[in-house]
Amino acid sequence: MMPNFDFSVILTLLLSLMMNMNFCVNCGHKTTEKIPLGDQKVRKVCTTCGYIHYINPKVICGALVLWEDKVLLCRRAIEPRYGLWTLPAGYMELFETMEQGAARETREEAEAEVDIEQLYCMYNIPRIGQIYVLFKSQLIDGKFGAGEETIEARLFDEDEIPWSELAFPSVEHTLRHYFEDRKTNNFPMHLETLGTRLDHTG
Question: What is the pTM (predicted TM-score) of this model?
Answer without folding.
Answer: 0.83
